[in-house]
Each structure stands twice: as structure tokens, then as C-alpha cells.
Amino acid sequence: MSQRQTEPDESQEATEFQKTLSKIIQVSTLTAKRRESSIKPDVETLNSLSYDRGVLPADLNELINLVTTPNHLDQASLASIVRNLYPASTVSNEVVTKVVGSIGHGRSKPSLAIQGALLRWLVMIYHIIRSQGALARGYSVLFSLLDTAAIRYAIYLPSLPGANMLSLARQTGNDPALTGLLRVFKDYYPEIIVGEATRGKASAFNNSVSLEEIENADGFVKALETIELPNQLIAVLGDPLLQQLFLLKPDAEANQRVNNWLSSYAHDMISGDSDANPSDILATLRDYVSSTKNFPPMLFALISEYLKTWDGRGGRELLYNKLLQPLEAKALDDTAASLADILQFYTALLRRWTVTLASVDQLSARASSATAGLITHVNGLCLTLLQTSSSISTHSMVLDFYEQGALLMSGRYNSFRIRVVIPPSPLAYMLYFTPSPTTVSRLCGLLAKYKQGLQKAMSTSRSDYTPEYVNEFNGFLMDICNCLWRSRAFNTKDANSHGCLIPKHIAEDLSLYIKGLDTGASLASLFSLSHSPVLGLLSITYFRGLEDAELEKGTDELGARHAGPVTRATLASLAEDGGLRLTWDEYRLGVLTYLDQNGMGGVGQLMYNTMTTLMKKG
After folding, report:
1. CA-CA distance, 297 to 294, in Å (whole number)?
2. In this structure, what DSSP letter does residue 554 have?
3. Domain range annotation of the chain
4. CA quadruple 537, 539, 541, 543: dihedral, nearest 10
5. For 210, which DSSP code?
6. pLDDT at residue 6 tops 60
7. DSSP notation for 56-119
8. pLDDT in tens, 94-116
């Protein structure tokens, strides 16, 4: 009667155990945020069932798979599962092999805490392992990890067959090799009793392998965990094998040693005490960064010092194509700050190239292409930065770079046939539609210099610039002139005009909205000198200054003052009402002069270089 009642209960418990285990395994593939409920109650149920009935071989195999492979279970749950692994029968060789294989260092390995728990579990179930040979086969793995404090409990496992070695050592008359091995046991875990067996001569026993002993890739892989770093660690900069070791087995202390050497070398370079060839050092650093994916903090300082003495020719391809681009990829971290740092570095580099070009009589075609390549590359960087950060300081850094480039593309440098590389179209408009008058002025002045450079370049090498390329640049000029000077903002009917890249349907909707306000103004005029959100205040300030000056003469009083903003029609009405007499052209030219006097001459430079009616007056 009792037997018949027990069997259904055991069957029911087995079913419940398997269902709970299956659920935990399924949930382990999901992050905590994606789970519908907490996993902890299921883990508690599983542990309770394991304690009451034991774990059958098939279930034990699945649990070992769970705790030894990467998943999303928290460490507390995994540790709890390991502590409650109660085998219901002998433990298979496969399970032992999986546990031993999970021990060691690496991203795919369990945490050291879980590894320690698994090792303690192996010690407890040692006598119910189906074959002792299964553990013996993992002996070398466990022994090589004795120097890892967090899992040094592994000493108990080698020490179990070590009892046989103790007996063997006594039988062979204290063989030096066995004595040396037993001393290692004693040094790592004094609690293991080896008695008199460690006395007498002993062979030197090394837990580590030097790189010089590695002959091939297979040897490197087998000895990965025991390879000893060389005393002269700076060899990592030029040794591909050591670079791979740094990548596969990261070491904070070793990285610090490399950084210290770089700091020392940078100091020697600054002081002039270094005899090494800087180009050779840069080539070595390139290989180091590419292989180890590690970016030493001192590297920027080192390159900065190198640029101070660089002749601008030797090692150009190495510096830019092979070193700077990999460094950039490592330094960028999807933040505006990292983008800004890289941009400032490239600006300094371009400034150095400019100084170098000023000192040579003839420019090589290679140098010209490298300069154009740098600017083309930074075009994308600047566009990304502006989309990431819209601060005035960001705009200033972007303009710093292009102003440096404009020096190369215009003036005396143009005789060297530096290719004119224009900014991306969205970048020009993003800078123009900013709340800063200074930014707008600098952009206008920049485009004026680009226009001069492009005209000179095309006079000698027109074939280098396609009509589409030239029209894209002319679009910047036409659109800005349409906004500021012609009161035709966002117009797309003029030759080369792009409407500031504003989609036509959006411009039409904005135009209807402005008409609905019933202010008498049109969308096309709202970005003129008088109405511009950026330059409007400066324009009316100029006009009121003229009115104040007229009153100070004391001859005639003004019959009326202009309320602003100034238009062609309001100037005519003002004159009829006894106000200041000024033509529309006189007013606009006066505003350009006023802007120039207040440090914003770039607007006038662009107008005088672009508008046909103003070219004769400029």
C-alpha cells in the first residue's frame, strides 16, 4: 500500500522538476527586463526538489550546461543551483569534463565565484565519479590554475591523485621530480600533509612558459594561461605574438608598464635626448594599437610632440592612413566630447601642414592629395559633430578647421594646386541657421575664401572639378544671398539655388502660416538683413545710430523715427514723414559696413564677392 502511494509521488516530483528546469533554462536566455516575472521562486523550487529527491543524470547534465555556459541568470541564482546539486546516482565522465573545461579565464567562462563553487562540488562528489580517469584527464588544467587565488580550492583535486604520488615518491626513494611537484602542493596549500616527502633534492618546477619557448600557434594556444610576460615589456610594441597575448589575456599592470615607457619616451623626445627615429616608433605604435585594440593615454601627447618636428613629408602615409585612422576609431565613443577632441587634433595637424607648405618651393602631388584626403575625411566627422552637439563652441571648432583649410585653398597656397574640398551641403546650412551672428559671419567669410580658391583652381585645372561639384558650392552662395540680400529665402527657381535644402512642401506650409499672421511680411523676406533673427538687431541698431547722429547735428529735428524693421517701402514712407532720408541700397551697404566695424566682416566679404551689382563697389 505504501509502495503504491510512493511511486505516483516520485513521478509527479520528477515531472515538476523537469518542467521547472525547462522554464529556468528558457528564461536564462532573456535579460531581467524582458522577463514577465522573477526567476527566483523557480530556482527555489528546483533547489528544494533537488534536495528532496536528488538530481537524475540527464537533469544533472542540463544543470551543468546551464551553470557553465553564458546566460542571463544572476550570480546568486547560479550559485544557489550549484550548492544544491545532489546527484541521485554516479556522476558521468561527461559532466566532470564539462566542469573542468569551464574552469579558467575568459569571457565565455563562469565567474570565478561560480568556478570556485563548482570545484568544491567536484571535491564533494569525487568518490561517486563513474571513472576516476575523467578527473585525471583534467589534471593539467586544474594544476595550471593554482596561482588564481579565487579558485585555489582546485588544489584539493590534484591532491587527491597526489596521495598516490606521495606513495610513489616514498617507493622511489624521493625522486627529485616527484619531490618538486609535492613541494608545489605544499606551497600553495599548506593544509595538505606531505610529511617528510618534500625533504631532499628536488627538481625546479615552473608554473609558467616564456614567449621564447613558444614555437607555433598551437603551442601558443596550449600555453596561453601560463605564458610569462617578459621583463622588457616594451617589446609588446613590436612583437606580434606578445600583442596577441595582450589581446587574449588583458593585464592592467602590464598596460601600465607600456604607458610608463611611452611617457618616458615622450619626455625624451621633448627634451631632445632620444636618438630613436620617431617614424619607426610611430610605425610600431600603429601595429600595437591595431593588434591589441588598446589606446595608451600618452599616445596623443607623443604624436603632438612628433608633429612639432615633422617635416610634413616623411611618413605622411603612415601617420594618416595607417596610424591616425585606427586611433580615431579607438578614441571615438559616440559622444560629442570625443568627436571634438579628434576634430581639434585634425585642426592642429592641418595647421602644421600649412606651416610646412609655406616653407617649401614646390609641392608634390602626393602631399596635395593627402591634404585633400584629410579634409574629405573630416567633412564627415564635422557633420556628425554638428548633429550631436549644437552649441556655439562646437560651431566654432568646426569653423576653426575649415578656416585653416581655406588658407590652403586660397591665396599663395593655391599656386600649389591644393584641391578645393567643399564642406557637405547640410553642414553649411546648419552653421548658417544658428543664433550666433559671429558664426554666420565666419561662415560667410569662409565661403568667400573658398570661392576665390575655386575660381583660381578652375582657371588652371577646370577638368578637376565637375559641373555638379561646382554647382553644389554655388548653391551655398546663391541661397545665402537669397536670404540676406535678395529677400528670396528658400527660392529654388534661380540657377544653382537649392532652397537651403528645405523641402518644397515645408516651405509652402511655412509661407501660408506667415501670411496667416497678417503682418505684411512674407516668408521670403524674413531672413533679410533687416528681418533676420540673427542680424536684425544689428541692422536696426545701425539705422538708429544714423538717426541719433542726425539729431546731434542740431540743424533740423527728425519728423519721425523708424520703428523697424527697415524695408524699401518703409524707407520711402519715412522720408515722406520727415524722417531720415536713405535709399534702400545705401541702407544695406551701410549695414555691411557696420557689421565689418563690429567684427563681422564676413557677411560683407561674401556679398561683395558674389553679388554682381556689388562687385564693382567692393
Report:
1. 10
2. -
3. 2-198, 232-329, 332-484, 536-615
4. -150
5. E
6. no
7. -HHHHHHHHHHHHS--S--HHHHHHHHHT--BSSPBPHHHHHHHHHT-SSSTTSPPHHHHHHHH
8. 999 999 888 887 778 888 888 88
